[in-house]
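Meet my pick.
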Amino acid sequence: MITFEAVNELSIDALMRVENACHTHPWTVNTMQSCLAGRYFNLAAFNEQQIIGFYIGEKAGPDFTLMDICVAPDFQGQGIAKQLLAAFIEYGEKHHAENLFLEVRETNTRAIALYEQAGFSEMSVRKNYYPSSDPSKNGHEDAILMGMTLLFG
């Protein structure tokens, strides 16, 4: 059974295992550590005692940003990312966020479909935002900035 709970810096090694398995250009340990306290919030998915996915969000005034979300490759396609994303949205609603934002690689079509299904809309494009190993991308690829309005004020 998959369970969900927030984690702290004691889980850094497990978070980094998932991060490194999911991303071609993963966060560093220092970046991950800096995003586990202060204005940041998170939720991890567990299969028994093993972290198999997580999200990290950031509070910036009335707006919350999904900074990172990933699910270990062996557990992808089981709806865990959808549950983590729903939890991020619910957190924003409970804490009276006005808007939710995220950035996604233009080539990550599965994630874009998930975000659109959850109610996010494309707002703009950040040119050459992400590093890329794809030779056709000249070392960088665009980020799609997506958002969702929660409170009209």
Observations:
- Residues 119 and 148 are 7 Å apart (CA to CA).
- The beta strands are 2-5, 40-47, 50-60, 63-71, 99-105, 121-131, 140-149.
- The radius of gyration is 15 Å.
- Helices lie at 12-22, 29-34, 80-94, 109-118.
